[in-house]
Amino acid sequence: MTLASFITRLTVMVFDTGGQLTFKAAANHGGGEGMAHWRAMARKPWLGLLSFVVEFVAWLAFLSLVPLAEGVLLATLNMVTIMLGGRFLFGEKLTPRRLLGVGLIAAGVILVGVG
To answer: Is the entire prediction scored with pTM above 0.90?
Structure first.
């Protein structure tokens, strides 16, 4: 992996993870019940949307540098960072089954990357 592809990949991971975690924060702190909750959430997604715009541009740049099969495979690592972010920011539980899943994802990416 070249330095340019590493930097764009890292950018994709950071902004995808940040966008997902921002949307979770907006959903958790919507406030109110029913439509009031939805209206409150609708006022808070802008950082998440901006994150996804940056991620989209970085993703296009990344795909211009690596084969599609490799790029999509590396994108699966975002699930790991999002899950860890959920644990540290929102106190979500990491069960043994989830940790096993994360380990299998990471092992699969390594195996395919080496092969």
So the answer is: no
